[in-house]
Amino acid sequence: MQQHPTPRVPARTTAPLYRRGRRRSALVAALLATALLTTAAHAPVVRADAPAASPEAADCPSVLAGKARCYTGRDAQGAHYAIAVPTRWNGSLVVHAHGGPDLGEASDPARSTGDLERWAVMVKEGYAWAGSSYRRGGYGTRMAAADTESVRRVFVDRFGRTGRTYLHGQSWGGNVAAKVAETYGRKPGAYDGVLLTNGVLGGGSRGYDHRVDLRVVYQYYCGNHPRPTEPRYPLWQGLRPDSTMTTAGLRSRLRECTGFDADPAARTPLQQRNLDDILAVTGIPERALESHLRFATFTFRDIVSTRLGGRNPFSNQGVRYAGSHDDRALNAGVERFAADPAARRDLSFDSDLTGSISLPVLTLHAIDDPTAFVEHESAYRATLRGAGRAHLLVQSFTRESEHSGLSDAEYATSLAALDRWARTGHPPTPRSLAAACPAVDRAYGAGCFYDPAFTPAPYASRVLPRPGGRHWPAMTAGQERAWSRIDGVGIAP
Q: Which residues, other chains included, contact 252 with Cβ-Cβ below 8 Å and sequence gap of 6+?
């Protein structure tokens, strides 16, 4: 029988202020647990006694060959997961929340194994790693948070108590990991810190407003999504439920209207003007135009038609579009709609963040991220400030321009700094991170691109705010408590 590594749990050093409460009486711990259950009353709950198959040994990605033992399995809710334990394990664990959301009904086992390969740097740094593929595709932040907490429990059940446990979320996974921290992070001993990288931190009710704008602005200029000869539907649906359009079909329509993937010299004057107007009005980078339109088409359909029963959570009422060659005509002709209040509430309850955290949070964000704009960090800081928790947040920024991956040296530097913060109570600074990275990069050669002086502009400077949309949190802790008492609130798992 294969031998499984035994956790080597390092002794905890002096606990910082935000962790001293864990040493108080069992009564205080019970009260915290009760508060958590009240807050998450309608969230998908992971049962501690739910039966699940034990992890099975599996091949590691080639980048970890000889460096770790890997395992895969499926939890009690049907979510596939992957686990890696380094041969030289430091006793601590990183629980990963993946981005997306991927579409489709089934849990995809390749997602967690692929993410293990992508973030193998964390295993190389000595941390065990566990990631869930989530029980299904499609939107559902609380569902994904529950499945992320589930894989942590699977790990502990199999390998025992860890020295420390950290959350990591990338892209939409940043939203998921932040939700895990709010929902499950108050349980004593569950998590010790959070690393959010290129995170979608504006939440669902505001985080996709730029894609709402893209959907209507695109249709105003292009008129081919839908075409005049096709069945009409409100654009907030993204795509009508019975449409058979594929991503290739959408790309063809985008090319037809804008020539976006052609040499500029090959575009017609009308294509170039359409492209210029769409980009100028929405602020979306040209290289990411297709991916944003895919989200505003297929993921919007999933949110509206599959998750919210056909109800509309989106609005562009009161938005003044600017930057085109004729703003007056655009604002007069663009499709307008208002959100269904209950649908907006359900999307907000599912995905918006209250900022009610008790863990140190370190973020890392590419300044030129074309997908999750860096201004999401301003939204998150405003959210934590509104909740009185800004002292638990340190944000760092890099002169990079990719969304799906940053420098391995920066991931390793961030994780080491978060671990030090959790152990000592002394937070890093953007300058200390930049100073530490070159020594770490000797092992990776990936480069260090920190910009310690950078501060992102307000979220409203990049994404046109809706009336009342300048105040954060988008969902307060009081709203979350009140909404949790409504039967069926949110998005079903």
A: none
